[in-house]
Design goal:
This protein is an all-alpha fold. It has a single domain, classed as MFS general substrate transporter like domains (Growth Hormone, Chain: A, Up-down Bundle), CATH 1.20.1250.20. The protein is built from 18 helices and no strands. Helix 2 packs antiparallel against helix 16, helix 7 runs antiparallel to helix 8 and helix 11 packs antiparallel against helix 17. 53% of the residues are buried.
Length: 439
């Protein structure tokens, strides 16, 4: 069934859903998490890292402002492919900026442009997904979507961070300062990112469905009118203020954890960290975490499709938030046994993968439906990212003030509102086959 009453896609969604969401996840994860490790290697203070790498995520919060214009100009596929190619070029440019005397300010500026490109890509990619798939297929492939979006996270925080550590050892020597060795290592990593995104752009130019034709009108005036309609319609939806609170609180604990965990793992044991190397961090995220996360995401997709979102949402919230206790335990005990560290990461990432898809599907099927489905999903995901951005911006200052151990205990307190609001969250539409489709 095609919601747009157009021709059915020739290719299976598995030909483009996994790669599309892998491409979506890569810029977001690199800017949001990998950049923190990179700047830590390049001797930038924790608080400054957390603040600026959170601030540049702003486009993912306000992307609804330009989402109506993507409805009236060209096809959604056009914006997907264009932004993938643009982001690839910009990551190549970032590789060069690391060699400048004022590298931090210039690299942050380049990352800010990548953030705008990546946010635009996300609007169009989600539009293709919702336009080309029925509600039943959305639930069916939500596990694949979540798995490959977060596979990008694990490839980046695991494989690329590990590779940066490996390169650092190769460049290190008696005549090479540690800072210079890290610059060379991260230059290669940024260049690889650029090549990967360029390759994905070329691939999707060939295989991605259009996601529907652009609107007949191409005027700026109608685009502005469309933005006004999007905003008014969004805030007049049934239960919308409850939904906004739900979106913010569901990931509140994760927002605090996201920036600090890689810094905590890398920090010296004398200051409360675990003292891991880049290669160890990459190994645990990329080897142990990858399998756990993918398994969690895929199982959650089929679990929701089988039982329905309404019956499973509270369970998903619990599985998502409770495993953050792992980092509090690691911070207090500072174990030297790597199997304990790896086991903790496995548990947390399985829960992350399993629980994250619940929020994604809720926004698609309870918040987004209506005349402006793509724009309203962009609005909802922007609100979600606002929560993560604001908590991430202050997380460095909180962890510096409290220390890692007390900070992670505080994070557990911040998860309590998520359980309460999820237990009582109302559903506007029936989930599953009977969910409304965009007309």
């Amino acid at each position: 069934m095609n919601p747009n009453n157009g021709p059915k896609p020739v290719r299976s969604p598995l030909a483009w859903v996994p790669s599309l969401y892998f491409a979506m996840g890569m810029p977001f994860v690199v800017l949001n998490m990998v950049s923190a490790v990179m700047f830590k290697d390049l001797e930038i203070p924790d608080a400054q890292i957390a603040f600026w790498t959170s601030l540049i995520m702003w486009p993912w919060t306000i992307k609804f402002l330009w989402s109506p214009f993507l409805e009236i100009f060209r096809t959604k596929k056009f914006f997907v492919v264009t932004t993938q190619l643009l982001s690839g070029v910009l990551f190549g440019l970032a590789a060069l900026t690391l060699h400048l005397p004022t590298f931090f300010a210039v690299t942050i500026a380049v990352f800010a442009v990548i953030a705008f490109s990546g946010a635009t890509h996300d609007i169009a990619a989600d539009g293709v997904y919702m336009s080309e798939l029925s509600a039943t297929d959305q639930a069916k492939y939500i596990g694949w979507q979540g798995a490959f979006y977060n596979l990008a996270k694990l490839v980046a925080t695991g494989g690329l961070v590990w590779f940066a550590g490996w390169l650092y050892k190769r460049f290190s020597g008696p005549e090479t300062a540690a800072f210079d060795a890290y610059v060379h290592a991260w230059t290669i990593v940024m260049a690889i990112l650029g090549i990967v995104l360029l390759a994905l752009g070329i691939y999707h130019w060939r295989v991605l469905p259009s996601g529907g034709s652009a609107a007949e009108s191409h005027s700026l005036r109608e685009g502005l009118q469309g933005l006004r309609e999007v905003i008014v319609d969004f805030f007049t939806k049934k239960h919308i203020w409850y939904y906004i609170a739900f979106i913010i609180l569901y990931r509140l604990g994760e927002g605090f954890v996201m920036k600090i965990v890689p810094l905590f793992l890398k920090a010296d044991t004398a200051v409360g960290g675990l003292g891991l190397s880049n290669q160890q961090i990459g190994l645990y995220y990329g080897t142990f975490g990858a399998g756990a996360f993918l398994l969690g995401s895929l199982l959650a997709g089929y679990y929701i499709a089988h039982r329905g979102l309404k019956r499973t949402l509270f369970t998903l919230c619990c599985i998502f938030n409770i495993p953050f206790v792992v980092y509090a335990i690691l911070a207090w005990l500072q174990p030297s046994q790597m199997w304990l560290v790896g086991g903790g990461i496995i548990l947390e990432y399985f829960g992350y993968g399993f629980g994250f898809v619940g929020l994604t599907l809720f926004m698609m099927q309870q918040v987004a439906p209506g005349r402006h489905q793509m724009a309203h999903y962009a609005f909802a995901s922007g609100i979600m990212n606002l929560s993560v951005m604001m908590t991430g911006a202050v997380s460095g200052y909180l962890s510096d003030w409290l220390g890692y151990a007390h900070f992670f205990v505080l994070v557990l307190v911040f998860t309590i509102p998520a359980f309460l609001i999820t237990w009582f969250v109302p559903f506007t539409y029936p989930d599953g086959k009977d969910a409304p489709q965009e007309q």
